[in-house]
Design goal:
The protein is α/β, with parallel strands linked by helices. Helices cover about 45% and strands about 15% of the residues. Bound molecules: adenosine-5'-triphosphate, beta-nicotinamide ribose monophosphate and zinc ion.
């Protein structure tokens, strides 16, 4: 349930006499005021295949944001990249999507979204963030336009008066959840690779959304922020989360183990192990997919530069 400030809730839903009654009710009957900003965490990546560390990123980020007292994480979204990304060894999105769905089956807040990987071509991460932010905005607007007021025992649609619009804006600015990019420190560092990311995209990701970054062995996120002028400027939009229980699980290592016929049990969820076995995924042949092909963002950005 979405929590709105009680003042706004009172103005939106109640007549003045109801409002007076409501204000006299004991606190447990009133909608609790919660000033924390709602956040949706969006993780993009290959997920080739999904590992338990990908799931841990979400848990770590949520704990961290809740501990600040300023944010309330309402959803996590895993968005596997489309086949057009052309990364070496990237298997079909349909399999990566299916494995991610199996892996998140037991989570009541992390979901998998197929919008990005069902696009014909690879798309910049900023567009994926925009898409999910827009989806939330649409849901929010239709929610509020469907609200009804009770007057003389009748229900009617909210009027579209100036006051109504102002109320709605006030409510939306209060409750509109913010999509934030969730990533590991290696992905943060990739922002500095020539031709991989456009500067304007990095600026928009930082200024309009923000990043929650989990530390990773082999990467030094805080040093990278220090060395990058853009990241330094927007450092207030980057939440750096320390993973104390370090674990160097990566999809590359999972694929390597599989090629060598070694067990990957307990590194990925059991259902994913089973899916990989049943579909005979990941072997020397699949590792050669896209071999010799330039990664799409590199190809696209060097063409345009
Ligand atoms: N062990 C980890 N610690 C921190 N972040 C991680 C870890 N594993 C994956 N991530 C993050 O998860 C996101 C998706 O990563 P990706 O699908 O590339 O997995 P990966 O394990 O890094 O795979 P690969 O080895 O193929 O690059 C990225 O933001 C990446 O930084
Ligand atoms: N310019 C960009 O928007 C850009 C560049 C490189 C990678 N990415 C994204 O970052 C993620 C990286 O995933 P991998 O670490 O698995 O390669 C993917 O989701 C990819 O689409 C975005
Ligand atoms: Zn990676």
């Amino acid at each position: 349930m979405r929590l709105v400030s009680s003042a706004v809730a009172v103005r939106l839903h109640l007549s003045s006499s109801e409002a007076v009654q409501q204000s006299l009710l004991p606190p447990q009957n009133m909608e609790k005021s919660d000033d924390r900003r709602e956040v949706v965490l969006l993780a993009t990546g290959s997920f080739n295949p999904i590992t338990v560390m990908h799931l841990r990123l979400f848990e770590l980020a949520r704990d961290y944001l809740h501990e600040t007292g300023k944010y309330k994480v309402i959803k996590g979204i895993i968005s596997p990249v489309g086949d057009g990304y052309k990364k070496k060894g990237l298997i079909e999105a349909s399999h990566r999507l299916a494995m991610a769905n199996l892996a998140t089956k037991n989570s009541n807040w992390i979901e998998v979204d197929s919008w990005e990987c069902s696009q014909k071509e690879w798309m910049e991460t900023v567009l994926v963030l925009r898409h999910h932010q827009q989806k939330l905005a649409n849901a929010n607007t239709s929610d509020s336009s469907e609200k009804v007021v009770h007057k003389k025992g009748h229900k009617r649609k909210r009027e579209n008066s100036y006051q109504d619009k102002t109320d709605r804006c006030l409510q939306e600015s209060k409750v509109m959840p913010q999509v934030k990019l969730l990533c590991g420190a290696d992905m943060l560092e990739s922002l500095g690779k020539p031709n991989l990311w456009k500067n304007e995209d990095v600026i928009e990701i930082l200024s309009s959304f923000g990043i929650v970054c989990i530390t990773r062995l082999g990467s030094n996120a805080s040093n990278f922020i220090y060395e990058s002028d853009i990241l330094w400027k927007y450092k207030h939009m980057i939440h750096l989360v320390e993973e104390w229980i370090t674990n160097d699980i990566s999809s590359t290592k999972i694929r390597r183990a599989l090629r060598r016929g070694m067990s990957i049990r307990y590194l990925v969820p059991d259902s994913v192990v089973e899916y990989i076995e049943n579909h005979e995924l990941y072997n020397e042949r699949s590792e050669e997919r896209n071999s010799g092909i330039i990664l799409e963002p590199l190809a696209r950005n060097s063409k345009n530069s």
